[in-house]
Here is the input.
Amino acid sequence: MAIIKNIRQLKGATVLAERKSSTPSVDFMRFNLIYGFNGCGKSTLSRIFASLQQGARHQRLPDDCTFEIEMEDGVKYSCPKSLNGLEKRICVFNHDFVEENLRWAEGHASPIFTIGADQGDAAEQLKDCEGKLPAALALSLSDAKIKAEREKAFGEYKKTTANEISGRLRQARRYEATQFIADVKAGASEQDILSDSDLDAATATCARSEAPAKVKPVDVPLAGLLACLETAADLCPKSIGSVVVEGLDAHPTMVQWVKHGHDYHAEHDLSSCLHCGNEVSPARRALLASAFDDKVSDFIGSVQEAAKAGAETSAQLDIAIAAVPAAAQLSAEFQPPFEAAAATLSTVLAAGRSLLDTALQALQARGATPTTPVAVILPPLAEMQNQVQALEEACQAVNAICDQHAAMVDSFNDHQRKARDAIRKHYVAQTAKAYKAHVAGIEEATTTADDAKAAAENLTAEINTLRAKVQQHGPAADKINALVKSYLGHGELTIVAVAEGYELHRHGALVRGAPSEGEKTAIAICYFLSTLSSEDRKIKDLIVVIDDPVSSLDTKAMNYASALLLNRLAKVGQLFVFTHNQPCMNEFKKAWKGRARAEPGKSPTARLLFIDVAVPEGAAARTATLIELPKQLREFDSEYHYLFQKVLEFEKAGVGHSDYAFMMPNVLRRVLEVFLAFKVPRSGNVSDKLKTIEDRHDGIDLDRLRALERLSQVESHSDNLDDLIAQSSMTVEESRDATRALIHLFEKVDVDHLKDLRTHCNPAEPQQAAPPPPVAAAAPVPETDASAPGAAPTLEDSPEAGPAPEAETA
Here is the structure.
């Protein structure tokens, strides 16, 4: 089966540095040793693997922690969405495991279930059901996701539609999706769908904050127009036979002048012409009197009156044309019909204007020459009457719309409410098909999701039933007891199966109070090893993660514990060991160092890694990065060389930034303690030993020694990096002074030692997690380390008690 190859992506995992798909692969192998100080993120890393065991993000990981694990076959598992698939293969031993399964104060442990040998058929059925469960759960999850996506899409659709409606309604209170749903329930028909122009008109009505102004109706002088046309057609072409006066017919324009002169002479009884002075004979007077009788006078007067009335009508018609309202003055819904009616009115007004101009010109011409008929080009009377009738109808149509507009203005609030109702009904009718499609899609997805969920639940219930039938936890107690006895070298402590799990007994009685640290370690490791074969799991398929198997307080049984784990876990599919304990690290390093070495014709099967904690320049917090195990830790069994390399790096940085300044007080103390342990090999504190060094060597700067002593004793009392990251700028300066003081001490006390350290611990460039050569196939089971206190049996063997170091007593 495929093993874990890489942590492809990582974000929000506390101190662990962010990883991206472009970050070089870690290239995990079958055996992986990861060494790091306390506080470097080992527990967080173990919880990332535990998430794969749970099939969900570990409850103690940050809520925003995301990651992606890549297998060697390319399959990827990501948090939080896709973690299912490795639950039966991943087994994690860490503080959380111990806390969840071993309750020391109560002397109680959780049950470890094994499959009874007499339940073969049920066990096969259980195995078959468990094989189907991942697919059933995946299908249930997929169908639930489809349902959720459709519900989300429907929600977005309703929200978007409601927003569009709200934009048109323009009301004080926002129109929400819940109102749209209520409108859909109220219903609407296709007849409620508005045209684009009607929808825009209703929108414009809704947008108004107050009613528009009324418009005046159009007043066209229809009677005057028709009278002018009829008079012109009647009078202008008439012939006046009674006014034939010799000479005047040749000078028609003088008729008015002659008539006026005749009337003046007659009224004043003048016998001679005032113009020429000649006598006006009685015969001439009689001739003129007969020519200018009352009938002619009436005719001329009629022509003049008609011309005057026509001029007044023309002026009124101009006013009427100018007074036709613009469509924009009306409410939007009236504008389209008004524009059509106004266009018709404009056409007939133009025709009427043309007729009136023709008639008026003819009347004015006849008035100027009363005795001469004037030809007037006008349509027949009936046709002119029809045109005036058309003008009247067009005017009425325009005025009817103006009246409707006025009525709307009087009831504007009600009109606006109806416009909003129309818009809402329009959208309900227009979106009915899409709305029903969403509802149908959700109903279908709900049915499918419910069926898939029910199938998965039924399968889970069947698995639980079968498991209850075939599982038994009693036999596991014997395996645990055998391992514990082999580990401790005595049988005082035993695990006893009870109804709800196990009880911890000492000399046959329930243990009261917590066991010793050594006993805790023994029980916890043996308990965990026993869980690996539970639930009918195969050792060769497992991916096992061990986080700090040996506590800092329990070094007495460390060699045996390491040997036990190396032998018991030799055949697992993949093994990770995290530790901050250097002796423990050395045991696993010694066992896997050869496997990690790339040799011609042989691919490595192990990786030796280190969690490097640093505070990069410009960063506010420390970050932890997986890198190759540094040379000084790989080649030497002491931290001394590695720590002195950090001293040299800090010295080389001078007053510049150092990624490791935060840990230098602790580093300096530990280097100083090791150096003094060899130079002054007796008991005593740092101050006493520095005093001895001072007495033995000349030329030592005493002020520097005091500063070194003060910094090493006051500023650092913990090997946990969490305690060393909140230092002031003065502490950094003191660290620089203390570094110079430490180098000064080495120069004065053992200059050759210092030269050798500078040679072997020369500061290198920052280390990167460069990928090793390709992973080879699974290697054979390693031979038992000859240095181990005793060969521990494998999981397939029946463990027996053997010699082991005595455990600490309570």
Residues 635-760 form one domain. The CA atoms of residues 647 and 739 lie 7 Å apart. Residues 718-730, 768-810 have pLDDT under 50 and may be disordered. The radius of gyration is 55 Å.
